Amino acid sequence: MNNLTKQKALHKISNFCAYQERSPAETLEKLASYGLNSAESEEILHSLVKEGFVNEQRFALQYAGSKFRLKHWGKRKIQYALKLKGISQEYITEALASIDMDDYYATLEDLARQKISTLTKETDQSCRVKTTTYLLQKGYSQSDIQEIIKTLISSRNE
């Protein structure tokens, strides 16, 4: 699939971007796989942005929302993933702010409750550690986690 003409590459990459939201970095990477040089790739990317096929802000909002809703990622993990995808800090901040905080804390509590329910034979300390580790890996902050766990562990002992 290497060394496509610019016109064929534009058609192919347009379909690639129309299928789902793509970041500018993903799009450039795909264009490079077509064997185009960086100048041609940049020119095609500029054209895709102009035509609305690629939009960094739209990508960031969609990515953050879907990772939170579908995979229950916390803001820290979403932020890190968006940085890896080359999204600017302005759009990362906007995308994270678009997550409803009531839903965010409800999801965090649900995840903690589910994890704690699997640890019935564990001591309170062990349960705290394992639940905290799990939620940190999901991308939630230490302070939010501790607040939720404190409430759930004390209610578990009642």
UniProtKB/TrEMBL annotation:
Keywords: Cytoplasm. The keyword Magnesium does not apply. It comes from the Bacteria. Coiled coil: none annotated. Residues 102-149 form the RecX third three-helical domain. InterPro entries: RecX_HTH_2nd, RecX_HTH_3rd, Regulatory_RecX, WH-like_DNA-bd_sf. It is found in: Cytoplasm. Its main location: cytoplasm. Modulates RecA activity. This is Regulatory protein RecX. It comes from Danxiaibacter flavus.
